[in-house]
Design a protein that fits this description.
alpha+beta, Glutaredoxin, seven-stranded mixed beta sheet, 13 strands, 25% helix
């Protein structure tokens, strides 16, 4: 099992270094300035994730509806993840009290290693892993290129994670409004403006009607 995790982690690290656009992944209408953030033409509801934190508590993504969420997929051995961490820490410190949450999801390293890393690096936001809930990363080949999907317990593809780091931006209704593949420049003025704009909706947030768009399709 450890060997499988190491191979998967290595593959995704390689993919994160050689960043390439996936037609299947990039539904975005364009970038936000030079921040390496892409915005979808229309938000779409994503399926729920059920994970665990280092304390062993069960955590659902749906628990965070009513907040703006950065769903951040990372691994311990990812150089770009470490480069992006300070900006994510600053975002949490700046906007956490106003309704922003960062969820650091790691589906390749062991729970013990994740917990140790979180303590050693004083992570100011929750770090989550599968912990027996049945969510994992499944590497697949699409049009001759390897990518990976978060797969739920019934083997449905929930979200694409083509490499580390990958971050989905969710509004307070739990809908994805954009994403970043590779380290984002969260301090960029336009990126900060996007986050501020989403936070202004928090006080009047109402559930959005789910749309049948990418995010919950079966792989098999």
């Amino acid at each position: 099992m450890k060997s499988i995790f190491r191979k998967l982690s290595l593959l995704l690290i390689i993919v994160s270094i050689f960043i390439f656009p996936h037609a299947e992944f990039i539904y975005a209408s364009g970038t936000i300035s030079d921040a390496n953030i892409f915005v979808y033409p229309k938000p779409f509801k994503i399926a729920d994730l059920v994970l665990r934190n280092p304390a062993g508590q069960r955590v659902s993504l749906s628990d965070y509806q009513g907040k703006v969420v950065l769903l951040h997929f990372w691994s311990i051995q990812c150089p770009a993840c470490r480069m992006e961490e300070p900006a994510l820490h600053q975002l949490k410190r700046t906007f956490g009290a106003e309704g922003l949450e960062v969820l650091g999801v790691n589906l390749v390293d062991s729970p013990q290693a994740i917990a140790g890393y979180a303590v050693a690096n004083q992570m100011p936001f929750p770090v989550l892993f599968d912990g027996g809930q049945g969510f994992k990363l499944q590497v697949v080949n699409m049009a001759g290129k390897n990518t990976a999907f978060v797969v739920n317990p019934v083997r449905e593809a929930v979200l694409e994670v083509p490499g580390f780091p990958t971050t989905y931006i969710l509004d307070c209704r739990g809908s994805a409004v954009g994403y970043s593949f590779g380290a984002a420049r969260w301090s960029d003025r336009a990126a900060v403006s996007l986050i501020r704009g989403l936070i202004t909706e928090v006080k009047t947030c109402r559930p959005r009607i789910s749309m049948n768009l990418p995010g919950n399709s079966s792989l098999w």
